[in-house]
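Open question from group meeting: does this chain pack into something compact, or does most of it stay loose? Before anyone orders reagents, we agreed to write out a predicted structure and look at it together. Recording both the input and the output here so the notebook holds the full record.
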Amino acid sequence: MSRVAAIDCGTNSIRLLIADVAAGGDTPPKLTDVVREMRVVRLGQGVDATGEFAQDALDRTLEATRDYAELIRRHGAGKVRFVATSATRDARNRQVFIDGVRELLGVEPEVISGDEEAALSFAGASSVLPSRGKDPVLVVDLGGGSTEFVLGDADGVIAAKSVDVGCVRMTERHLQDDPPTAEQIAAAEADVDAAISDAARTVPLERATAVVGVAGSVTTITAHALKLPEYSPAAIHGTELGLDTARAACTSLLEMTRDDRAALPYMHPGRVDVIGAGGLVWRRVLERMADVTEGRITSAVTSEHDILDGIALSIS
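C-alpha cells returned:
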C-alpha cells in the first residue's frame, strides 16, 4: 500500500486527490480516497483572448496550490504529480505559474499535451467502469478550455484527440448575453461542430459501443437531469441517461438565466456562468454520436472518475 497525491489544474478548476493505492498482482491498482477536493479558480480567465494568465487568476490558483501542499504534507503522500492542461498550454507567461507551483510543492509541474490528457482521462474513467472487453468505449472529457475524445477498450487507448472547445472558452468567445442569443448559440455550435469533425479525423467515433462523459460540466448536467436536492457524487457516478433526457438537461441549462442557474441546489458557484456552454458542447457531442453510430448509441454514462484518478494511477 502506498499513498500518492495527484493535482489536476485545468482551465476552470484545480483538484486534489490524495489516495492509498493497493496493487493486487495481476489485477489493476485500486485507489482508496483519503482526500478529494475541488476549487474553481478560473486559471484560464481571458487566456483565449489575451494569450496570457491574468494576475488575479494566478493568485487564486497559487493560493489553492499552497493549501493543497499543506494537505499533502499533513497526510504524508509519498509521491506527488501536478498536471496542468489546456489553459497552461496556451498561456505565454506559463513559466511564472510553473515556477510558483514548483516553489510551493517541491515537484516539477507538468504541462501535458492534449494526447496525454486524453490518455489519463481514459485511464481514470475506465478504472471504475465494468469491463467491456474488446468493445470500444468513447470517453469524453469536457473541460474548461478543451475537450478530449478517447476511444479505447480493455487493452487501452485506440485513438485520442484533444480539441480547443470547452465551457470557459466557449462562454468567453461567444455566450456573452444572459441568456445567450440565438446568434451566439449558433456561433458556438459552429465552433463545436468543427472541433468534433476535427476529432473524428483521428478518432473513429463510429466504432464506439458506449459513451462515457467525465468532468464537472457533464456531472452537473447529470445532476440537473436527475433533479437532485444537492450535488451528490454517489448519486451521479455511473448514471446512464437516455440521449433525449441528457439533451433536454443541456438545453435547459443553456437557456436559463444566470440567476436561475445559481439557485439550483446542486450548482457549484464557480460553474454558474459557464455551465450553459458546457451544456451546449455536450449536447452537440451526443447528437453527433447518435448520428455517426446510426442510432446504436442511445444513452450516455456519467463518471465521477476522470483524469485526476488517471494521474494518481500513473504514479502508483
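Observations to bring back to the group:
The chain has two domains: 2-112, 117-307.
Residues 86 and 145 are 5 Å apart (CA to CA).
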